[in-house]
User: What shape does this take?
Amino acid sequence: MRMRAGVWVVIAIALGVGAYAVTKYSARDTHRHQAMLQSGTLAAKLQLTEGQRDAIEEINEEFQRRREGLRDEHRKQRRELMTLLRESPPDRERIDAKLAEIGEVQAEMQRLAGNHILDVTDQLDDRQRERLFELIGEAMCPGGMMGGGRDC
Assistant: This one.
C-alpha cells in the first residue's frame, strides 16, 4: 500500500511539473523546474511556429480554467476536512469519507494535467515532443533519471 502511494505521488509530481512548464507560470514560482524556463520561453526552446503557439495558448487557457475550478473544490474539501478533524470526538468514518473525496479531486487534477500534456504534445512534431520531455525531465530531476541519466 505504501509503495502504491509513493507511485501516485511521483506520477502527480510528474504531471504537475509538465503541466506547469507548458502553461508558462515561470514568473511566480521558485521551484526546481524554474531553471527550465530561465533562459527563454518554452515556445522559443521548442521553436514553436506561430500556429502552434496559438493552438497551445487555447489549450492552456482551457486547462487553466478547469484547473482553477478543481483547485477551488480541493480547497473547499480540505476546509471541510479540517472541520471534521476538529470535532470532539472526531467521527473517523466521516473523516475517511472526506479523505476519499479529496483523493478523487486530486486524481481528477492529475488526469487533467496528464490530458493537458497529451493535448499539447499533439500540437508538436517528434523533435519538439522529445525536447519537451527532456525539459520536463530536467526540471523534475536535475541530475535525475527522468531527465536522461541524472540522479533524482
